[in-house]
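It is worth pausing here to work through a concrete case rather than discussing structure prediction in the abstract. The textbook approach is simple: state the sequence, then state the predicted structure, then interpret. We follow exactly that order.
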Amino acid sequence: MPESKARKKAVDKKKSKNKAKAKEASNKKLQAVRIADRAWVPYVFVPVGLIGVAWLVLFYIAGYTIPFMAVLGNWNFAIGLGLIAASFFIATFWK
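Step two, the predicted structure:
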């Protein structure tokens, strides 16, 4: 005996709901993994920021007596501030 169209629509609707629930459950698992994966952030952004500050302090104190810093000249400011800016950018990944 052939199935009615209403019955087939109900079965299809139930299948789509089950797929949506399964997809939602997998998304929650992925989201939990992503949050757990961000434990590295403070261990990276703090040292990068401190290296940037140390670079600037070292350049202010003894910049032109250190050969590679003397060659870089005022680019030392860009390097130090770039490291500090990178630190703030990395910090935005922290949850």
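Step three, interpretation. Residues 5-36 form the longest helix (32 residues). The CA atoms of residues 25 and 36 lie 17 Å apart.
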